[in-house]
């Protein structure tokens, strides 16, 4: 008789897991305080005292900058709008090339296109899953303007080598830190090493304000340009006496007073939330390391901190005798979802499909690809372009979120039991031919 739930056996655990919910009384009180003032936003899109927003916006930004030890923080209404702002601020023009990771949320790669820039994909490192420095260097041309680094899953990218490449070729470095708030690379917070760092405060992330984002930098000029792009630059450049009008078309990318009041409380909770997450990862790693078909991600180098937005695990199908997808489907069947939002257990197969395989790149859809300034030789989105990213996506990697704060030791042990049960009964998953 079948033991595994996917074959009709009993499920390892039936009760739902605790929800990941970071919103508490502190946020409620902070929101009420703002509501009582009647002033839900104080931004003015003009050269005026309120050009930089109201008291909660400013307090949130100054606390964020202080927490990371960086000179400036500018709030924006998403990481996506932060990436757009960054591309504008660094002066991306049609035909400029930006080296990006194919193994990231889509917004990281799409950002250059807004200004006619061309995303050029570099392959990833099979251990960190971040862009591999040697692949970055191989993609540099005379039109390369910037490297957009993603600290994917919270693992810091190899910033020493990337900064050295940038210096050698005179390139700007932007860090997408959406999954890595308070991650560190050799003692420095990510988002403070390159020219600009961009964080996300959407509801999937470690901390959130519903939607939101933060740009960080030590560069006064870039921050000035970000502040203008966030808030109707065109109204401000005249009175402010700005001469370089490149990309000085403004958006409304502003956060509200309510969101920033929530953000202040969320930021205060981040260190404890992160510590609990790392403890849960350590616990799971200890218990999962006995399964030889699973390859856990090694700790980053000394002084570096991984923030585990998700917990990535590589699956060895040769050792297991079954393929990854069969394994993950069986694992999903053993475990319930959590209470909040989820309709299935939070386990993902392969993370995102390498972005250049999306229709927008395959069909070169958009004016940037066809602009006369674009070098057609650099517009290469051929399948096979980034073999490691493709292998991770299609065959090797899976991720889960059972290390979220709020999980008890018993909850974590149930997750381990599900893995154990599958490995104990793995023959049930092998095809008839391979079993014989
Ligand atoms: C979530 C995420 C984004 C987009 O963030 P938003 O705030 O939703 O715009 C960008 N990059 C990465 C790596 C992300 O994880």
From TrEMBL:
Domain of life: Bacteria
InterPro entries named among the record's database cross-references: DegT/StrS_aminotransferase, PyrdxlP-dep_Trfase, PyrdxlP-dep_Trfase_major, PyrdxlP-dep_Trfase_small
Protein name as annotated: dTDP-4-amino-4,6-dideoxygalactose transaminase
Keywords per UniProt: Pyridoxal phosphate
MF terms in GO: pyridoxal phosphate binding; transaminase activity
Single GO BP term: polysaccharide biosynthetic process
Gene3D superfamilies given in the database record: Aspartate Aminotransferase, domain 1, Type I PLP-dependent aspartate aminotransferase-like (Major domain)
Pfam family name, one: DegT_DnrJ_EryC1
Family recorded in the similarity comment: Belongs to the DegT/DnrJ/EryC1 family.
């Amino acid at each position: 008789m079948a033991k595994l739930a996917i074959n009709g056996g009993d499920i390892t655990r039936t009760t739902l897991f605790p929800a990941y919910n970071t919103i508490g009384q502190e946020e409620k009180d902070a929101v009420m305080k703002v509501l009582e003032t009647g002033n839900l936003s104080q931004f003015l899109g003009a050269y005026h005292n309120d050009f930089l927003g109201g008291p909660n916006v400013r307090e949130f930004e100054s606390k964020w900058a202080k927490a990371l030890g960086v000179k400036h923080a500018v709030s924006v209404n998403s990481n996506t709008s932060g990436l757009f702002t960054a591309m504008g601020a660094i002066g991306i023009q049609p035909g400029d090339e930006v080296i990006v990771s194919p193994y990231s949320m889509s917004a990281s790669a799409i950002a250059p296109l807004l200004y006619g820039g061309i995303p050029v994909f570099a392959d990833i490192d099979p251990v960190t899953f971040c862009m591999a420095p040697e692949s970055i260097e191989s993609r540099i041309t005379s039109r390369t303007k910037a490297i957009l680094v993603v600290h994917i899953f919270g693992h810091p990218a190899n910033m020493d080598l990337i900064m050295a490449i940038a210096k050698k070729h005179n390139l700007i470095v932007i860090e997408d830190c959406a999954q890595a708030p308070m991650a560190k690379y050799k003692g420095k917070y990510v988002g403070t090493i390159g020219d600009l760092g961009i964080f996300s405060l959407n509801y999937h992330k470690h901390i959130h304000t519903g939607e939101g984002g933060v740009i960080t930098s030590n560069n006064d000029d870039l921050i000035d340009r970000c502040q203008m792009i966030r808030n109707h630059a065109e109204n401000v450049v005249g009175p402010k006496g700005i001469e370089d009008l490149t990309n000085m078309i403004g958006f409304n990318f502003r956060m509200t007073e309510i969101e920033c009041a929530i953000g202040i409380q969320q930021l205060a909770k981040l260190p404890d939330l992160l510590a609990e997450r790392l403890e849960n990862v350590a616990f799971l790693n200890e218990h999962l390391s006995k399964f030889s078909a699973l390859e856990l991600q090694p700790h980053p180098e000394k002084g570096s901190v991984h923030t585990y937005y998700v917990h990535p695990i590589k699956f060895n199908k040769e050792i297991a005798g079954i393929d990854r997808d069969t394994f993950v489907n069986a694992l999903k069947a053993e475990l319930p979802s959590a209470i909040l939002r989820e309709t299935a257990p939070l386990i993902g197969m392969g993370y995102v499909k390498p972005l250049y395989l999306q229709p927008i790149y395959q069909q070169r859809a958009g004016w940037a690809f066809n602009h006369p300034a674009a070098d057609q030789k650099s517009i290469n989105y051929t399948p096979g372009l980034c073999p490691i990213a493709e292998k991770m996506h299609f065959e090797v990697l899976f991720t889960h979120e059972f290390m979220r704060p709020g999980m008890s030791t018993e909850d974590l042990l149930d997750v381990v039991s599900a893995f154990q049960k599958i490995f104990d009964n793995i023959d049930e998953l092998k095809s008839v031919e391979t079993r014989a």
